[in-house]
UniProtKB/TrEMBL annotation:
Keyword Repressor attributed: no
TM stretches of this protein: none
Example GO molecular function: hydrolase activity
Keywords linked to the UniProt accession: Hydrolase
The protein's name: Alpha/Beta hydrolase protein
Cited CDD domains: Lipase_3
Domain (Fungal lipase-type) ranges: 3-113
One biological process term in Gene Ontology: lipid metabolic process
Length: 131
């Protein structure tokens, strides 16, 4: 099937994407051997996922980052971003991905699976005591 992401999430990411990518490119030019850690919570986790995806694509194409640059994505309480085709694409980028959720957080359960949205990996659960 065709790769799809939530259109509202994509639109909100596009508002700041160019500025963020410029900063990342400038920092990467200054520190080419550093690795990248991309972190976000809730909607920020969505943006972090989209940024890491874009950076991973650029790394594969050799246009944004050196091929040796490790990209680690950590997101907390993030909604589902895209469909299964997005998940396959995301996994093909060889990113380190850490998804942390609270058992009581409903945000990580939307948009709903019956609409075609899925998470791209296993998760680390936090209980009510933060463990």
């Amino acid at each position: 099937s065709q790769l799809k992401v939530h259109q509202g999430f994509l639109a909100s990411f596009k508002v700041t994407a160019a500025q963020i990518l410029t900063v990342v490119q400038n920092l990467h030019a200054q520190y080419p051997h550093y690795h990248l850690d991309v972190v976000g919570q809730s909607l920020g986790g969505v943006h972090a996922t989209m940024l890491a995806t874009h950076l991973g694509e650029g790394r594969q194409a050799g246009t944004l980052l050196a091929s040796s640059t490790r990209i680690t994505l950590t997101h907390y309480g993030r909604p589902r971003v895209g469909n299964l085709a997005f998940v396959h694409h995301f996994r093909s980028l060889n990113l380190i991905n850490r998804r942390v959720t609270s058992r009581n957080d409903l945000v990580s359960r939307i948009p709903f699976r019956h609409l075609g949205f899925v998470h791209e990996n296993d998760e680390y659960w936090l209980d009510t005591h933060g463990k």
